[in-house]
Amino acid sequence: MATGPKGKESLPPYFNIDPKAAAEKLAEPIHTARFAKAAAFAGRGRDDLAKRGYAPDGKKRLRKFSIWEICKYLIPVAPAHLRRVLKAHPDLPQGDGASNSKWFTLEDVLTLREHFAKEGAPNREYTSWRPEGLPAKVVAVANFKGGVGKTSTAAHLAMSAGLDGYKVLVIDLDSQGSMTSIMGGQVADEWETAFPLLARDYAQALQRENTVREAAGQAPFPFDETLTEALEVSPRNLVQKTHWPNIDLIGAQLNLYWAEFQVPVWRMQLRSWALWDSLSNALDEGGLLDEYDIILLDTPPALGYLTINALAASDILLVPLGASFLEFDSTGRFFDMIYSTFASIEEGENRIRRADGLPEMRFEWDAVRALITRFDASQQTDLANVIQAYFGDFMTTYRQDVTAMVGQAGEQVSGIYETDYRDFNRDTYVRGRETFDQTWAEIKQVILGTWWRDLQMAEAEKQEGDDNGKA
What is the pLDDT of residues 410-440, one digit of tens each? Predict the structure, then answer.
C-alpha cells in the first residue's frame, strides 16, 4: 500500500472529508437569476473564442492555397505544368506571391478547374460529376448521442465538397449553433433560422384546411402574428454567404429550440398537418434542390421534431459514433427510435390513405452509413471490428482517426482545411488531412452512386413514356 508523509499509510482522497469544512467552502444557494449571469459570461467567452480564426476586421476569411497544395489535392496536374499553363494564359488567375511560391483563392482554384476541364487531358477528372436535371442530394448527419463528432464531421464534409467544386448548402438545426460558429454565421434570432420554414409549412396547411372549413360553413382556425409573418418568409431569404465561395448557410441560435415546443402545439390543432415534411417542402418549393449540389443537415443530439424533419428530408443518413460500448449501444437505440418513430407515422398515414383509396406512403433513404470517429487504432481496433460486424453494411469501411491537428483546428473554431499547412510539419498536415479526405471519398462514392442510380431510373422512365407515346 502506498504511504504518505512520515511513513503513514495514505488513503484515497474521498476519506476524511470534514462536513463542516466542506460547508464553509460553499457559496449561498443558487437562484434562477444566477444562470443568466453564467450565460452572459459564457456568451462573451463564446464570442471571443469563436473569433480566434477571424480576420482583424471581425470577419472570417478562407485562407489561400499554394501550388503544391492545389496540385496534390485539388487539380490533378503537375506543378511545373500548372506554371506553364499560367504563363501561357495570362487571363487565368495568376495568384499572389513570387513565381515559385504563388497562392490562390478558392475562387481562383475553381476557375482553374473549369479551364482544365475544357483544355486538359481527356482522361482526367478536373471537375466533380453531378448529373444534369436531378435534384441535390440531401445528407443528414445525426445521432442522439452527444460528443460523437457529429458537427465536426458535417462541417468537414461540407468543406470537402466545397474543395471538390460542389455548391453546398449547410443547414444548422442544432440550437447550440456550433456549425454556425464554424462557418462564421451571424444569426440574430429564430427568424433567421429554419424555424420560419416549419411555421410557414404549418401556415400553408392551415390555409388549406380553412378553405375546406369555410366551404363546409365552419369557422376557420385563427391565424396569429407568427403564422402571418411566416407566410412572407422565403427559404432563400434565410440563406447567408460564408467565407467559402461555394458554401452557404442557414444558421441556428438558441431560440431555434422553441420549435420543439411549438411544433407539437400546431400538430394538436391540425392533426392532418404532415409536420415531418416541412423541411422537405421548403427545400423543394424554395428551389434550393436545384440551386445546390449537396445540402448538409446538422441535427441536434436528440430525436426531436427538428431531427425528424432532417431525417425525412434526407436522401442519405450519416451516423457518427465512437468506438466505445456506450456509443455503440446508444447508436443501436437511435436506430430503434428511428424505426419506431417512422413506422408509427407510416402506419397512421396509411390507415387514412387506405380508407380514402389512396396509395400508401413510406419513408425511404438512398443509403445509411455509420461512421466511426475519433478512432485510436492502438486501443479501439477490436471493439471497432465488433461494431463493424453487428452494423454490417450500415458501416463505412474507413474509420476517422483522431489526430492532434484536429484538436488544434478545433481550438481555432475552424476546419482542418481552413488551417495553413505551414503551421505544421508537412507530413503531419498530410496525415491529419487524410482523415477527412478518406471520409469524404467514401461519402462521395455513396452520393455519386445514388445519383447514378437515380439517373438510370429517370432515363428508364423517360424511355417507357416514349414507348407508351408511340404505342
Answer: 545 578 899 888 887 788 888 888 888 999 9
Is the Cβ–Cβ distance between 46 and 39 less than 8 Å?
Answer: no
* Three-state DSSP class for residue 177: coil
| Mean per-residue pLDDT, 107-123 | 94
The Cβ of residue 353 has, within 10 Å, a number of other Cβ atoms equal to 14
Cα dihedral value 169, 171, 176, 178, nearest 10 = -20
With 0-12 / 13-18 / 19 or more C-beta atoms within 10 angstroms meaning exposed / middle / buried, residue 382 is exposed
Alpha-carbon distance of 370 to 328, in angstroms, equals 10
Q: Strands, E, within 201-278: which ranges?
A: 240-241, 247-250
Same domain for 111 and 152: no
End-of-domain residue from the set 119, 145, 161 = 119
pLDDT given for residue 196 in this prediction? 96
DSSP designation for 8: P
Residue 15 lies in a domain: no
**Both 443 and 352 in a single domain?**
yes
The answer to whether 279 touches 142, Cβ cutoff 8 Å, is no
Amino acid at 300: P
Q: Which of 90, 119, 148 is the last residue of a domain?
A: 119
> Which structural domain, as residue segments, surrounds residue 256?
137-194+233-402+433-463
The C-alpha angle with vertex 281 and arms to 275 and 286, in degrees rounded to 5, equals: 145
Lowest-confidence segment of 139-153, 186-200, 242-256, 275-289 by average pLDDT: 139-153
Q: Is 159 left (phi over 0), alpha (psi -120 to 50) or beta?
A: alpha
| Ranges 2-11, 12-21, 231-240: which has the least confidence | 2-11
Q: Which residue has the cell 474509420?
A: 399
Tell me what the pLDDT averaged over the chain comes to. Answer: 89
Nearest C-alpha neighbor of 428 from the set 402, 405, 399, 401? 405
Question: Quick check: 267 pLDDT over 80?
Answer: yes
**262-273 mean pLDDT:** 94
Please count the structural domains in the chain: 2
The whole-number pLDDT of residue 48 equals 63
Specify which residues 140 forms β-bridges with: 297, 317
Residue with the three cell numbers 456509443: 327
Q: Per the domain annotation, does 201 fall within a domain? A: no
